[in-house]
Design goal:
Blueprint lengths: L18 H4 L38 E7 L3 H8 L4 E9 L15 E8 L6 H10 L14 E5 L2 H18 L6 E4 L3 E3 L7 H4 L2 H10 L3 H6 L1 H11 L4 H8 L8
Parallel strand pairs: 4-5
Antiparallel strand pairs: 1-3, 1-4, 2-3, 2-6
Helix pairs in contact: 2-8, 3-4, 8-9
Amino acid sequence: MAGLNRATRPVAVGALLTAAFLAVVLSGCSSQRARVHIPEDGLIPGGSIPPIDTSAPAHTETATFALGCFWCPDSLFGSMDGVVRTRVGYAGGTLENPTYRNLGDHTETIQIDYDPTQVSYGQLLEVYWGSHNPTRQLWSRQYMSIVFYHNSEQLTLATQRMQREEERLGRPIHTEIVPFSRFYLAEDYHQKYHLQQIPELMEELTAVYPDFADFRDSTAVARINGYVRGHTTLEELQERLNSSWPASG
């Protein structure tokens, strides 16, 4: 759907990196139904595509991270101003066309498209390092901690930040930093997983985004998924849904 994944208001990126936000710990991805407040007229009044989705930024860049189960990172990064879309999938292995039941040597991964004029790769790394325990040696490659870099700048930033984290923590970090090769989308039921557990919201959003690819790639849906997981308030969410991206130069 042309015109999805755009937003419209200037973003105060500094607010994203508050201590409270970085204190989020991905301690597991419970499938328990979240308790969320849904206004009587719905989160998207009138059932039309909200302003945040009406015109995408002219330019986006991509970050690809693995940090354990991918349901929680999908909601965490999707709640961030400056992030245009999120998708979960599999990366880092050799098996072609992996699936959740036949993952091979791949790792659960999140891919993030972001507006570099609103949020930087370094700021995404701040959230990445602050939202999981990279010193824990995991028993399964499925849940590895990996930064998949897309260019030399991302490699430099990720390496420098990992060295600082190791010094700060005083323990070895088991995160791998490897070149990005290929990303396979996970099955539909994994995309915006926490949101998909709320039937009332899904009924509303399916009417707005009848094509699942539009649902998966929508900025509004990413923000609502973050709200369901508790990363934002209802008031903040409604403000974001009705806002627009600043014009890029």
